[in-house]
Amino acid sequence: MTGPGRQAQLIGTGLIGASIGLGLRHVGWTVTGRDLDEATGEAALAVGAIDRIGRNPDADLVIVSVPSGSAVQAVEEALREHPRAAVTDVASVKASITEAVEAPRFVGGHPMAGSEQDGVAGADPSMFLGAVWVLTPSDRTDPDAFALVHGMVTSLGADVVSLPAPEHDLMVAMVSHVPHLTAATLMSLASRRSEDHAALLRLAAGGFRDMTRIAAGSSAIWPDICADNSAAICDVLDDLIAELQGVRTVVETADREGLVARLEQARAARTNLPLRAVGAADLVEMRVSVRDEPGQLSLVTTTATGVGANILDIEIAHSAEGDRGVLVLVVERPAAERLAAALLVHGLVVSIGQLP
Amino acid sequence: MTGPGRQAQLIGTGLIGASIGLGLRHVGWTVTGRDLDEATGEAALAVGAIDRIGRNPDADLVIVSVPSGSAVQAVEEALREHPRAAVTDVASVKASITEAVEAPRFVGGHPMAGSEQDGVAGADPSMFLGAVWVLTPSDRTDPDAFALVHGMVTSLGADVVSLPAPEHDLMVAMVSHVPHLTAATLMSLASRRSEDHAALLRLAAGGFRDMTRIAAGSSAIWPDICADNSAAICDVLDDLIAELQGVRTVVETADREGLVARLEQARAARTNLPLRAVGAADLVEMRVSVRDEPGQLSLVTTTATGVGANILDIEIAHSAEGDRGVLVLVVERPAAERLAAALLVHGLVVSIGQLP
Does the pTM of the predicted model rise above 0.80? Predict the structure, then answer.
């Protein structure tokens, strides 16, 4: 669904926007970009992230990469200005924007990649290689818009993970937001204690450096993230505080078995933390017959995520009559069988074929 | 103080012991080693970490690298079996062993380096290059024993940081023990939540991986560490829990300024986290006249740590009369001036000279 001839419009050409622009131009898209900050737009042009500054009303796809506080407004505006285009965004919290924007042509997105470097200077299309890029289809999502956004994401080398927006928000609170806040808290504590013990920070070896690395990032995005996702963040923080109190009891009472049990559980989980699934070796094409009605796309894609199936490509074949269609998915073989089984449970007709 | 002709005895030839053996043999020491586990001793011999298995009563230096639960006993035994040797250990907690062992020839040590790989198979003398290796001299410590251990450590490429044992223990609780327990707790929480949300761990990107990496390490050493250092660990855990509760309030009340203040403090501290001081460029020799009495060595070396002076080499020149001596230190120039000023405050006479 990507390739020569496609036209993209970037709204916001900072670090993420410019990185997307570089990547899309590399695979043959024509990219027009604009940014509220004139210098940022010019910098994006200078590094080759866009073909020209301005508006392209004929764009097939609009990518909104603005601070999350103004994302809803920018997306609504993009939908009005581009009445046929698919529109996506890159904000780190998804439930609020997905609820606020009702248009079926909008597909919420969250590339889980970044850089400690701010701005266009850090732009790098390889940022997305092997990264997870969450899409949050809802019952309203238009399959063609979804397929276009999906194709754009995979053409940048990222893996699409489709999730309901509220589930995404809870998950990123656990694996991103609370870890970030915890790293910053540990770093501040150590720094404060080092005022009395000058040598303390010299003792901070590899493990401490690894744990606190993310605290070196810019703080600018966090007030919006914490405001948008405060319920999920507080929920995870409550769990973390309760667990740390449990650890304290184990340490204070010298409960050796309790300690080892906790650490072994963590060790097993860390060792099993999935690396990126390397694919392209044994891929199959799955054809899923769906009714042309709300929720079918969302059902198929989030079911795929649920069984760990990585959708590498997605196309929609509409039937002539208009009431049915076929989703054509490219997935890895072992996951394809799990996915087919899960879709059958939902009453969907699935066929699997070898790719040519 | 190191070099050809020196003889070392290793008690315990696992990961750390074997790594030390490899490094010492490389700089010309003759190394004898033994381990309660026969296979471990043989493996150390096979990888070239020791010249022979057994006991060398003429060793100048005994290095005890055994599980910390049996370290006191092993050190006491080494002191009896080697009546003239300096004895050091590598346990991660230092106050208990430093209090328990009264002999002036014992110098507590803690190399802050390691590997996720257990056992002789992971042995690697480069493990210590650029690492911090804490020594915990006390008022009882014999200067010649200290200088020998110091020379051994620097010959392995590590930087010596001298600290009173209780201060060391509080610091490692902050930069090592509590971060490890926190990483394990975050990993376990994420793992438990992923039982309901299969995709959760796929969303764990670089930051989460960095933060939880240390949780993949062996859990075997932690019951002893937590038992030996429980007071300091509980103290730091209390601080961490209180701070996380503060973060929760900031998030819940959408206190944007409070959040940014916390994150900016952490960011500044992380950015300023010292890297290893690269030296050898502009070194000076400092001669410190000291009385041959308890506490002088400990005073000089921990004062150096207090002003951030890295002692690259240390020798003791005893006077003929026996009541006075000279500590000859090699330090980097800017730190040398701070150190001289701090020592003058303590009434010590200092001279600084260029190295040949």
Answer: no
